[in-house]
Amino acid sequence: MLCDFHVHTSFSADSKSPAREQIDAAIKLGMKEICITDHHDYGTGGMCHLDYTLDIPAYFAALKELREEYRGRICVRYGIELGLMLREREYLEDLVKTIPADFIIGSNHFIDGYDVYDKNFYLDNGYETTGSDRGAYLRFFESSLKRIQTLDCFDSLGHLDYVIRYGPVKNANYRPEDYMDVIDEILRVLIQKGKALECNTAGFKYGLGHPHPYEEILKRYHELGGELLTIGSDGHRPHEVGGYFSEAAEILKSCGFRYYTVFHERKPEFLPL
Protein backbone atom coordinates (compact mmCIF):
# COMPACT_ATOMS: atom_id res chain seq x y z
CA MET A 1 0.00 0.00 0.00
CA LEU A 2 1.28 3.45 -0.89
CA CYS A 3 2.34 5.57 2.09
CA ASP A 4 0.03 8.44 3.00
CA PHE A 5 1.92 11.72 3.42
CA HIS A 6 -1.00 14.09 4.01
CA VAL A 7 -3.10 13.20 7.05
CA HIS A 8 -4.83 15.37 9.65
CA THR A 9 -5.74 14.71 13.27
CA SER A 10 -7.46 16.50 16.14
CA PHE A 11 -4.44 18.81 16.37
CA SER A 12 -5.90 20.48 13.25
CA ALA A 13 -8.87 22.79 13.75
CA ASP A 14 -10.85 20.96 11.05
CA SER A 15 -10.42 17.40 12.33
CA LYS A 16 -11.76 15.56 15.36
CA SER A 17 -9.88 12.33 14.73
CA PRO A 18 -7.30 11.26 17.33
CA ALA A 19 -3.94 10.56 15.77
CA ARG A 20 -4.09 6.93 16.96
CA GLU A 21 -7.23 6.33 14.93
CA GLN A 22 -5.55 7.69 11.80
CA ILE A 23 -2.46 5.57 12.39
CA ASP A 24 -4.51 2.44 13.09
CA ALA A 25 -6.37 2.99 9.82
CA ALA A 26 -3.04 3.10 7.97
CA ILE A 27 -1.91 -0.13 9.64
CA LYS A 28 -5.13 -1.88 8.58
CA LEU A 29 -4.39 -0.86 5.00
CA GLY A 30 -0.90 -2.34 5.21
CA MET A 31 1.04 0.92 5.05
CA LYS A 32 4.67 0.87 6.11
CA GLU A 33 4.68 4.52 7.11
CA ILE A 34 2.38 7.48 7.56
CA CYS A 35 3.11 11.17 7.89
CA ILE A 36 0.87 13.28 10.11
CA THR A 37 0.67 16.77 8.61
CA ASP A 38 -1.55 18.98 10.72
CA HIS A 39 -2.41 22.54 9.74
CA HIS A 40 -0.45 25.59 10.77
CA ASP A 41 -1.75 28.68 8.98
CA TYR A 42 0.06 31.28 11.01
CA GLY A 43 -1.09 34.89 10.78
CA THR A 44 -4.58 34.14 9.47
CA GLY A 45 -6.54 34.93 12.62
CA GLY A 46 -9.87 36.56 11.84
CA MET A 47 -9.94 35.31 8.25
CA CYS A 48 -11.83 32.15 9.16
CA HIS A 49 -14.28 30.79 11.73
CA LEU A 50 -11.62 28.23 12.70
CA ASP A 51 -8.21 28.90 14.23
CA TYR A 52 -5.60 27.04 12.21
CA THR A 53 -2.73 27.97 14.51
CA LEU A 54 -1.02 24.78 15.67
CA ASP A 55 0.29 24.24 19.21
CA ILE A 56 3.68 23.27 17.83
CA PRO A 57 5.48 22.12 21.04
CA ALA A 58 2.54 19.92 22.09
CA TYR A 59 2.12 18.61 18.56
CA PHE A 60 5.67 17.42 18.02
CA ALA A 61 5.85 16.03 21.56
CA ALA A 62 2.76 13.94 20.80
CA LEU A 63 4.21 12.73 17.49
CA LYS A 64 7.38 11.66 19.28
CA GLU A 65 5.36 9.56 21.72
CA LEU A 66 3.34 8.03 18.90
CA ARG A 67 6.44 7.11 16.93
CA GLU A 68 7.74 5.16 19.93
CA GLU A 69 4.35 3.61 20.68
CA TYR A 70 3.94 2.30 17.13
CA ARG A 71 7.55 1.33 16.53
CA GLY A 72 7.69 -2.06 14.83
CA ARG A 73 4.14 -1.76 13.46
CA ILE A 74 4.37 1.37 11.32
CA CYS A 75 6.77 4.26 11.01
CA VAL A 76 5.14 7.52 12.09
CA ARG A 77 6.73 10.49 10.34
CA TYR A 78 6.67 14.04 11.66
CA GLY A 79 4.96 16.41 9.25
CA ILE A 80 3.21 19.75 9.08
CA GLU A 81 1.10 21.58 6.51
CA LEU A 82 2.16 25.21 6.47
CA GLY A 83 0.00 27.95 5.05
CA LEU A 84 2.25 29.87 2.66
CA MET A 85 1.90 33.58 3.44
CA LEU A 86 4.30 36.13 1.99
CA ARG A 87 3.82 38.55 4.85
CA GLU A 88 4.90 35.81 7.28
CA ARG A 89 8.03 34.94 5.33
CA GLU A 90 10.49 35.61 8.17
CA TYR A 91 8.43 33.66 10.68
CA LEU A 92 8.00 30.66 8.38
CA GLU A 93 11.63 30.49 7.30
CA ASP A 94 12.77 30.69 10.94
CA LEU A 95 10.20 28.12 12.07
CA VAL A 96 11.31 25.36 9.74
CA LYS A 97 14.86 25.64 11.07
CA THR A 98 13.67 24.72 14.56
CA ILE A 99 11.02 22.01 14.15
CA PRO A 100 11.93 18.30 13.85
CA ALA A 101 9.84 17.75 10.72
CA ASP A 102 10.40 14.91 8.28
CA PHE A 103 8.16 16.55 5.73
CA ILE A 104 6.56 19.96 5.15
CA ILE A 105 3.64 20.60 2.83
CA GLY A 106 3.28 24.17 1.59
CA SER A 107 -0.31 25.13 0.82
CA ASN A 108 -2.26 28.16 -0.33
CA HIS A 109 -5.42 28.44 1.80
CA PHE A 110 -5.87 32.17 2.40
CA ILE A 111 -5.79 34.99 -0.16
CA ASP A 112 -6.49 38.72 0.17
CA GLY A 113 -7.90 38.29 3.67
CA TYR A 114 -10.20 35.44 2.66
CA ASP A 115 -10.23 31.74 3.35
CA VAL A 116 -10.60 30.19 -0.11
CA TYR A 117 -13.56 28.32 1.40
CA ASP A 118 -15.35 31.69 1.80
CA LYS A 119 -17.87 32.46 -0.95
CA ASN A 120 -16.92 36.14 -0.73
CA PHE A 121 -13.52 35.33 -2.25
CA TYR A 122 -15.31 34.33 -5.46
CA LEU A 123 -17.75 37.23 -5.35
CA ASP A 124 -14.92 39.73 -4.96
CA ASN A 125 -13.07 38.19 -7.89
CA GLY A 126 -15.82 38.69 -10.42
CA TYR A 127 -18.36 35.94 -9.88
CA GLU A 128 -21.06 38.33 -8.69
CA THR A 129 -20.87 40.44 -11.85
CA THR A 130 -19.83 37.91 -14.49
CA GLY A 131 -21.08 34.58 -13.15
CA SER A 132 -17.63 33.20 -13.93
CA ASP A 133 -15.19 31.66 -11.47
CA ARG A 134 -12.25 32.32 -13.80
CA GLY A 135 -11.11 35.47 -11.98
CA ALA A 136 -10.98 33.73 -8.61
CA TYR A 137 -9.21 30.67 -10.00
CA LEU A 138 -6.65 32.78 -11.82
CA ARG A 139 -6.05 34.82 -8.67
CA PHE A 140 -5.45 31.59 -6.76
CA PHE A 141 -2.88 30.29 -9.25
CA GLU A 142 -1.09 33.62 -9.52
CA SER A 143 -0.91 33.86 -5.73
CA SER A 144 0.47 30.33 -5.50
CA LEU A 145 3.15 31.17 -8.05
CA LYS A 146 4.32 34.25 -6.15
CA ARG A 147 4.44 32.36 -2.89
CA ILE A 148 6.54 29.47 -4.14
CA GLN A 149 8.84 31.84 -5.98
CA THR A 150 9.55 33.64 -2.72
CA LEU A 151 9.29 31.00 0.01
CA ASP A 152 11.56 27.99 0.57
CA CYS A 153 9.97 26.68 3.77
CA PHE A 154 8.30 23.61 2.26
CA ASP A 155 9.10 20.29 0.58
CA SER A 156 5.99 19.68 -1.52
CA LEU A 157 3.30 22.00 -2.92
CA GLY A 158 -0.05 20.78 -1.65
CA HIS A 159 -3.18 20.35 -3.79
CA LEU A 160 -2.17 22.72 -6.60
CA ASP A 161 -5.74 23.32 -7.85
CA TYR A 162 -7.35 23.18 -4.40
CA VAL A 163 -9.46 26.26 -5.18
CA ILE A 164 -11.86 24.29 -7.38
CA ARG A 165 -13.17 22.43 -4.32
CA TYR A 166 -14.95 25.54 -3.14
CA GLY A 167 -15.85 27.59 -6.20
CA PRO A 168 -19.58 28.31 -6.70
CA VAL A 169 -19.86 25.50 -9.25
CA LYS A 170 -16.65 23.71 -8.26
CA ASN A 171 -15.03 22.24 -11.39
CA ALA A 172 -18.02 22.42 -13.73
CA ASN A 173 -16.31 25.07 -15.86
CA TYR A 174 -12.71 24.35 -14.88
CA ARG A 175 -10.26 23.52 -17.65
CA PRO A 176 -6.58 23.47 -16.65
CA GLU A 177 -5.56 24.63 -20.14
CA ASP A 178 -7.27 27.98 -19.44
CA TYR A 179 -4.65 28.65 -16.74
CA MET A 180 -1.74 26.64 -18.09
CA ASP A 181 0.57 29.59 -18.65
CA VAL A 182 0.58 30.21 -14.88
CA ILE A 183 0.42 26.53 -13.94
CA ASP A 184 3.35 25.78 -16.24
CA GLU A 185 5.41 28.39 -14.43
CA ILE A 186 4.42 26.92 -11.06
CA LEU A 187 5.64 23.51 -12.21
CA ARG A 188 8.88 24.96 -13.57
CA VAL A 189 9.60 26.79 -10.31
CA LEU A 190 9.02 23.63 -8.29
CA ILE A 191 11.44 21.71 -10.50
CA GLN A 192 14.06 24.47 -10.44
CA LYS A 193 13.90 24.74 -6.65
CA GLY A 194 13.93 20.99 -6.04
CA LYS A 195 10.44 20.97 -4.56
CA ALA A 196 7.91 18.18 -4.94
CA LEU A 197 4.39 18.32 -6.34
CA GLU A 198 1.64 16.61 -4.38
CA CYS A 199 -0.92 14.26 -5.88
CA ASN A 200 -3.78 14.83 -3.46
CA THR A 201 -6.58 12.30 -3.80
CA ALA A 202 -9.18 14.35 -1.88
CA GLY A 203 -10.57 15.65 -5.16
CA PHE A 204 -12.39 12.33 -5.46
CA LYS A 205 -14.05 12.54 -2.05
CA TYR A 206 -15.18 16.08 -2.90
CA GLY A 207 -16.95 14.75 -5.96
CA LEU A 208 -14.63 16.33 -8.53
CA GLY A 209 -13.79 13.06 -10.27
CA HIS A 210 -10.09 13.99 -10.38
CA PRO A 211 -7.13 14.28 -8.03
CA HIS A 212 -5.50 17.59 -7.14
CA PRO A 213 -4.04 18.55 -9.51
CA TYR A 214 -5.82 17.24 -12.59
CA GLU A 215 -4.26 14.50 -14.66
CA GLU A 216 -3.10 16.82 -17.44
CA ILE A 217 -1.17 18.90 -14.90
CA LEU A 218 0.49 15.80 -13.47
CA LYS A 219 1.40 14.71 -16.99
CA ARG A 220 2.80 18.14 -17.79
CA TYR A 221 4.91 18.07 -14.63
CA HIS A 222 6.41 14.78 -15.81
CA GLU A 223 7.01 16.16 -19.32
CA LEU A 224 8.90 19.11 -17.83
CA GLY A 225 11.18 16.74 -15.94
CA GLY A 226 9.44 16.72 -12.57
CA GLU A 227 10.36 13.67 -10.51
CA LEU A 228 9.56 14.57 -6.89
CA LEU A 229 5.95 13.55 -6.36
CA THR A 230 4.25 12.99 -2.99
CA ILE A 231 0.91 11.29 -2.45
CA GLY A 232 -1.61 12.21 0.22
CA SER A 233 -5.25 11.55 1.01
CA ASP A 234 -5.79 14.81 2.92
CA GLY A 235 -7.69 12.52 5.25
CA HIS A 236 -9.41 14.09 8.25
CA ARG A 237 -11.18 10.90 9.34
CA PRO A 238 -9.94 7.29 9.60
CA HIS A 239 -11.94 6.00 6.64
CA GLU A 240 -10.35 8.69 4.45
CA VAL A 241 -6.75 7.60 5.09
CA GLY A 242 -5.32 6.10 1.91
CA GLY A 243 -8.48 7.02 0.05
CA TYR A 244 -8.45 6.47 -3.73
CA PHE A 245 -4.78 5.47 -3.70
CA SER A 246 -5.28 2.62 -6.17
CA GLU A 247 -6.89 5.09 -8.61
CA ALA A 248 -4.05 7.55 -8.03
CA ALA A 249 -1.41 4.92 -8.74
CA GLU A 250 -2.98 4.11 -12.11
CA ILE A 251 -3.33 7.78 -13.00
CA LEU A 252 0.30 8.49 -12.13
CA LYS A 253 1.52 5.50 -14.14
CA SER A 254 -0.50 6.70 -17.13
CA CYS A 255 1.22 10.10 -16.78
CA GLY A 256 4.63 8.42 -17.00
CA PHE A 257 5.58 8.13 -13.33
CA ARG A 258 7.03 4.90 -11.98
CA TYR A 259 8.00 6.15 -8.54
CA TYR A 260 6.63 8.44 -5.87
CA THR A 261 8.40 10.29 -3.09
CA VAL A 262 8.45 10.11 0.68
CA PHE A 263 10.52 12.35 2.93
CA HIS A 264 12.70 11.37 5.89
CA GLU A 265 14.28 14.25 7.79
CA ARG A 266 13.29 16.43 4.83
CA LYS A 267 15.28 14.33 2.39
CA PRO A 268 13.42 12.67 -0.51
CA GLU A 269 13.38 8.93 -1.07
CA PHE A 270 11.77 7.17 -4.03
CA LEU A 271 9.38 4.23 -3.75
CA PRO A 272 7.84 2.26 -6.61
CA LEU A 273 4.20 2.90 -7.51
CATH topology: TIM Barrel
What's the average pLDDT?
A: 96
- SSE topology string: EHEHEHEEEHHEHEHHEHEE
3D shape: globular
With strands numbered from the N-terminus, the spatial order across the biggest sheet is 1-2-3-4-7-8-9
Question: Strand portion, in percent?
Answer: 15-25%
Question: Tags for this entry?
Answer:
single chain, about 270 residues, alpha/beta, TIM Barrel, seven-stranded parallel sheet, two-stranded antiparallel sheet, globular
Topology:
Elements: E1 4-7, H1 19-28, E2 33-40, H2 56-69, E3 75-83, H3 89-95, E4 103-107, E5 110-111, E6 114-115, H4 119-130, H5 134-150, E7 156-157, H6 180-193, E8 196-200, H7 202-205, H8 215-223, E9 229-232, H9 245-254, E10 259-264, E11 267-272
Task: Describe the structure concisely.
With 273 residues, this protein is α/β, with parallel strands linked by helices. It is built from nine helices and eleven strands. Helix content is 36%, strand content 19%.
Describe this entry's structure for a reader:
- This protein is of the alpha/beta class.
- It has a single domain, classed as Metal-dependent hydrolases (TIM Barrel, Alpha-Beta Barrel).
- Helix content is 36%, strand content 19%.
- It is built from 9 helices and 11 strands.
- The chain has helices at residues 19-28, 56-69, 89-95, 119-130, 134-150, 180-193, 202-205, 215-223, 245-254, and strands at residues 4-7, 33-40, 75-83, 103-107, 110-111, 114-115, 156-157, 196-200, 229-232, 259-264, 267-272.
- Helix 4 (119-130) crosses helix 5 (134-150) and helix 5 (134-150) packs parallel to helix 6.
- The longest helix has 17 residues, at 134-150.
